[in-house]
Amino acid sequence: MRIRRCSRGGWCLPLLLGSVAVGCHSSTSHSVLEAPVPPAWFQDVTEKVGLHFIHDAGPVGDYFMPHIMGSGAALFDFNNDDRLDIYLLHNGGPKGARNRLYQQMPDGTFRDVSEGSGLDLAGYHMGVAVGDVNNDG
Hints:
The chain has helices at residues 12-23, 46-49, 65-68; strands spanning 73-76, 85-88, 100-104, 110-112. The chain is largely without helices or strands. The protein has a domain at 65-130. The chain has a 4-stranded antiparallel sheet with strand order 1-2-3-4, with no helix packed on it. The model has no long low-confidence stretch (mean pLDDT 81).
């Protein structure tokens, strides 16, 4: 089987003209600038409710496996007041920031109760699981 070269016309000219014709049609899509902006699904209220937490992933520069992995978060009622409290983990290593435990107050804000809880640990934390071991609520 032999394919002719484009230097003598042959099959190249119809292909070229067809490609130009397809590419030269008017656009019917709307501009991104014309599209209405939908309302935001979420609003950042972390500062307003007292969740002062910036994740510490460890030293900047060379990223090793623990630095590129996510850490963890748990929602649970640690004091049996029927409000979910939040435990947030850092992944900055032994010299990094300590994990934070936030107690939800009756008005919906959170108070940092990490110190003295036994959960204010520094290290490579990559996940958390909670459960009621002795079934006391």
